[in-house]
Amino acid sequence: MSAVQAATTQYRPAGSLDAATALLPYTGPWTPKLAAHLLRRAGFGGSPTEIDNAAAAGMNAAVDALINFSHDSMPQAPDADLSYGRLTTPEQKRQANIAMTMWFLNRVLLSPNPLLERMTYFWSNHFTSSVDGGVTPQMLVNQYALFRRNALGNFSDLTHQVSQDPAMLFYLNGAQNNKRHPNENYARELMELFTLGVGNYTEDDVRESARSFTGWTVNRQDYTAQFVPRLHDDGQKTFLGQTGNFNGDDIVDILLRQPVAAQFVAHKFLRHFVYDDPEPELVAAAADILRSSGYNVRVLMNGLLRSNVFYSPRAYRALIKSPLELAVGSMKLVGATEFTPRLAGGIVGMGQIPMRPPNVAGWPGGAQWMNQSTELARLNFANQLVYATPVANVQATAASMAPAMATSPPSGPPAMPAMSTPMEWIGGANTADPGAIAERIIWIALQDDANESQRSSILSFLQTDGVGNLVTLNGENLDEKVRGAMSLAMATAPYQLA
């Protein structure tokens, strides 16, 4: 077990869940620690200023600001040809994939609506697609727009729409599903991964569902979904004990009427937003909210983000950050304003290619984010970021990102277009006082969640020259010392936890 995995137990005191009160509104003290917790879970972390603002606003106002999306002027798509229509070489296609990825990363970093982007990410790892099997970057961008429109909408509506989404039709072979040769891929994953879970359907149900979804294809001129009646099997089907002349929409409706469906979806939400192994009683309570609201995601998330269980010690720093969460949160911490190709490549080195999940099951997350290689990559990312050299007008071009996406990023500090200075990180701390600087860094990076050993390590770095000799902080060494102390804080186990 790694130090990071072991650290999750530090915040998980023994005791049984009080199911009767777990989802009731939290009425305890509202602190900057809990404000930071909210921003880590309902977004990708907050800058020190964003955490201060959420703490000052109070819990309800902070949640309201996340739930009620503001006007978003962010680019809806990359400024590039992503259709493959005029892209004929492998290099052109690779550059289109890179342009798509950079667009996504900078949306996540800069959006005024962090929960909107977090939900888009959540849905992309639930209804998984990737640039594969005929899916173009433009199709995937369009699919993410679908997730964004339905971010806090109705799960039933989204499931219906995803079933007819061009990226999904290509990714799980729905575009090849016709009455002469039914393809069972989407029908199977719809039940196994999207709605019911393993063991809650039969192979006959898979076959009958596949027959019901026949007839959908994708127009290769404009890449829109089309229903072709002559390709649809309009015969009678028997699915999950019901018989009728079903189509795909009927199948989705039948699936979401199954009691286990709300349980399955609720469990997915709790694992992503609260903690990894939610108790059966908690899953049942969240499932009741989904069922009673008609699968209204806004109602569920509104309740979760204000609940006792969300702010409980059991949930606090109980999840290992994904590489995307770690990267975006780190950039917010140091005031970075744009992903560069090198930093995007750093996410790949940590084990996650943005917008490219490994398979239809998505990224498993949790402890699987951590191994000897990825832990080192996480430390390297932090070092590259805190020692970055700000350079004006750094261009995140597809060509310059290509090697970073193919392998781990090269060593040495990457150029950054803009970020805060080390002096801004430590705010008003006395620059001649190593203790004051250490406490400031431990606060903004860890919200004080550092043990004595971690505190001592950071303070010692600020006070000494590396071989035990005391040094005085001054204009010659202050910048380097603050950067190094920040890197040490970001290397601690608590920092790796959401």
Give the overall pLDDT as a whole number: 91
Biggest β-sheet, characterized?
2 strands, antiparallel
Give the N-to-C terminal Cα separation.
18 Å
**Anisotropy-based shape:** globular
As a percent range, the share of helical residues equals: 40-55%
Rg estimate, integer Å: 24 Å
Number of helices: 23
Poorly predicted parts: 392-411
Number of strands: 6
Content of β-strand:
under 5%
What would the keywords be for this entry?
6 strands; 23 helices; 498 residues; 3% strand; two-stranded antiparallel ribbon; mainly alpha
How would you describe the overall organization of this protein?
The protein is mainly alpha-helical and 498 residues long. Among the domains are: 3-68 and 278-304, no CATH class; 90-256, no CATH class; 422-498, no CATH class. It is 49% helix and 3% strand. The strands form three sheets. It has a two-stranded antiparallel ribbon with strand order 1-2. The chain has a two-stranded antiparallel sheet with strand order 3-4. The chain has a two-stranded parallel ribbon with strand order 5-6. A hairpin with a 6-residue loop joins β1 (216-218) and β2 (225-227). α21 (434-446) runs parallel beside α23. The longest helix has 21 residues, at 90-110. The two termini are 18 Å apart. The model is unreliable at 392-411 (pLDDT under 50).
